[in-house]
Design a protein that fits this description.
The chain has 2 helices and 5 strands, in the order βαββββα. By secondary structure, it is of the alpha+beta class.
Amino acid sequence: MKLIIQDVKRKPLWYHTRGLMQTATGYGPKIVTEYMLRVSNRWHRVYCSIYSNSGTLYILKGGDAITDGVEDAIQDARDAGRL
């Protein structure tokens, strides 16, 4: 399912601002990132499933993990200077 992403913003949690990690290793299936995407007029937190040196960004929508377009939206916002 291709997402229609309306907006991207940084909204770090307390441990992001202090340079800490959610887990001791920084790896796991649902690591919370500092990014949020607005899809269908609702903000969704971006998560990362990361093991070793490879990670996949996704949002949860209706209980499903959606990856399509998430990384591109964040990169486009960075390139445009919005993040």
